[in-house]
Amino acid sequence: MTADDIPPGTIASMAFWLLARTDRIRQHPGAAHIAASITTAVTRALRAIDRPPDLVFLGTCDSCQAGIYAAHGARWVTCRCGVTCNTETRREQLLAAAHDILGTTSEISRALTSLGRPLTPSVIRGLAFRGRITARGANERGHPLYRVGDVLEVISRDTRPPRCLLDITSLSANTHT
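The structure corresponding to this sequence follows.
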């Protein structure tokens, strides 16, 4: 084997290199081991990149206190003890319980988004910048902490579309006149 026989370090080039040598590999004394190694590597790679969807935490079961997790979009979830819950009802219960919790913009964004109220940290920072919500303290790193209920109240009152949609609408209205 010469240096010209070794494929460049990309997955595609290595796959083509192996494909061009299938007859030689098949006749090799270690063919079974080579095939098993390749199959194992492919299985591990697929497992690493093709992860199952993240589950959403919906609180603890009222019967057994185990954590309840559901896939995004699921309407019902069954706890390991057999109790079945409506996911929307559980989300609303968690939102109600979270009203007095303080968090950073990132923490609140993650929590609200997982509970079906998608909101970016920059939107929350914008609410604070415009004085629509106020910091209730700071964490150990000095990041402002906001009350989840304050954020929910402001976004539930705000029926205006996002500013970028207003700008697009006004632009398209002006071009047709």
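The radius of gyration is 27 Å.
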